[in-house]
Amino acid sequence: MPNRPQPKLNLRILILAFVLLAAMATLGNSFWVMFKIQKQELIDNALQANQAYAERIASGVQQVLSSDQTRLQYASLIIARAINDPQQLAGEAQRLLEQDNSFNSVLITDARGTIIASAPASLGLNGQPIRNQGPLKQQQPIISNAFKSLTGHLVVFVSQPVFDAQGQYLGLVGGSIRLEQKNALQDLMDRQVRQDGAHVYLVDSTRRVLYHPYAERIGSVVAADPIVDAALSQSSTALQAQDAHGEQMLAGVAYVPSSRWGVISQQPLANIYASLEETLSKIIRGMIPLALFGLLLMWWLGARISVPLSRLAESAKRLDSPESYQRISAIATHYVESWQIRRALLLGTSLLQEKIGRLNQQAQSDALTGLANRRAMQDTLTLWRDSDKAFAIVSMDIDHFKRVNDTYGHAAGDVTLQVIANLMRQNLRSDDLACRVGGEEFMLLLPNSSLRAAADVAERLRASIEAAQIETVGHITVSLGVTLWRPGGVSLADALEKADQLLYQAKQQGRNRVVAEELSQAPA
């Protein structure tokens, strides 16, 4: 009506405001999607890394303690023959002390627990009763929890009973490991330095800290802490929980069975958020110039664009949807300006979809080897099963891989795993799927393959791995189990179990071989 006031907004401003709002909604949605995906990916990777780290350290601790017990067992045989020779007993105690840096002191007792020989002699322990009477009563190999020694130090005691040829108990021989002094166990833990804000510590079954990167924590008893509870639960796992100090942690834990100790590798959840915030900040800073350019462009096009711009703005709200690229491409643009906007949106859609695709790829890939991970393998198995596609399953394990890590270090072990992954890619067809499902455990899925063809692939892969020269490590071998799953037969779980059983047969038959066998196809 004539008496109505003239609107203060023109089409250019309305269009610009609409485009800005749509762009902000799109960016907000895109950042929220990226934030959620990236956050969960970082948390999952941190949990997996900490669990793997704790397992490796627990294995190392187990090896150190087993080596100590083996040396003490050998010494007990010598001591049994020289139980009445003080000079020889003193020499044997000194030999054990000087053999390596495992023990900070060594002592030998009679059946009543009186010390009859010790090293170093400067401690003056001969003639005194031992503080920890548990090994005397149990008369079996023991790795103790931490306790105060006769010299007032906080120690762990590794002992071995001494029996004569008739089986009569003569006493024990043991070595103490001072928690505050350098020794083989502490050297092992000191080498476990993390660069991602994580730290590792060791507790005994009474929750007393045996090792911690902060020396003042050694000897303290950890209060109620679900992470420590998990570490002492005789299992290996990863968890997100609040520690005894009230801080949210991403932790991996492992159990040392011979000593009933727990290994904890953990890092603050705040570190993950800090890393994520830094990444998002870089993305935002990188997008600012493009955003400013887009603002100027929209202002110039506002006077000339109506319907096409409206459609483009509407499409811009859903850049993260899979069909967004096709939808934007279908919008008609009859002039250069609208064509440029469409091109810019298509570019933004491609970059966003590429980023989301990379994040999805990371979630489906093993970080070290680039092979498919267990999640991707399960998704593929489900898809092939639902589409009634027959496929061969090859279960593969590296022979004596623990020796590689123990002899050359975990870095060489990682290189070995990467070489194996590359050889797998070279020996497989484009439709085959190579997966890493554990530390040195791999799985190959070969669709539309016969058992014989799969066995040939496995044998070719085995031979190429055996022939490969790996830097530092040299040559290694693998064992493989091969079976075939057909629709209407046994379950996927039974098929995977069968492949693992065949793998174990290969190892039992001497390793470095392929064992293939048909499945019984009766439904489970």
Keywords:
single chain, Alpha-Beta Plaits, 16 strands, Beta-Lactamase, alpha+beta, 524 residues, six-stranded antiparallel sheet, 48% helix, 3 domains, five-stranded antiparallel sheet, 14 helices
How does the SSE layout of this entry go?
Elements: H1 11-81, H2 86-99, E1 105-110, E2 115-119, H3 134-138, E3 142-143, E4 147-148, E5 154-163, E6 169-178, H4 184-190, E7 199-203, E8 209-211, H5 226-231, E9 237-242, E10 248-256, E11 261-268, H6 269-301, H7 307-316, H8 324-329, H9 336-364, H10 374-386, E12 391-398, H11 401-408, H12 410-427, E13 433-436, E14 441-447, H13 451-467, E15 478-485, H14 492-508, E16 514-516
Parallel strand pairs: 15-16
Antiparallel strand pairs: 1-2, 1-6, 3-5, 4-5, 5-6, 7-8, 7-11, 9-10, 10-11, 12-14, 12-15, 13-14
Summarize the structure.
This protein is α+β, with helices and mostly antiparallel strands and 524 residues long. The protein is built from 14 helices and 16 strands. Helix 1 packs antiparallel against helix 2.
Descriptive overview:
- This protein has about 525 residues and is α+β, with helices and mostly antiparallel strands.
- It folds into three domains: about 10-45 and about 275-360, no CATH class; about 50-275, PAS domain (Beta-Lactamase, 2-Layer Sandwich), CATH 3.30.450.20; about 375-515, Reverse transcriptase/Diguanylate cyclase domain (Alpha-Beta Plaits, 2-Layer Sandwich).
- About 50% of the residues lie in helices and about 20% in strands.
- The protein has helices spanning about 10-80, 85-100, 135-140, 185-190, 225-230, 270-300, 305-315, 325-330, 335-365, 375-385, 400-410, 410-425, 450-465, 490-510, and strands at about 105-110, 115-120, 140-145, 145-150, 155-165, 170-180, 200-205, 210, 235-240, 250-255, 260-270, 390-400, 435, 440-445, 480-485, 515.
- Strands 1, 2, 3, 4, 5 and 6 form a six-stranded antiparallel β-sheet that branches.
- Strand 5 (about 155-165) and strand 6 form a beta hairpin.
- Helix 1 (about 10-80) runs antiparallel to helix 4 (about 185-190).
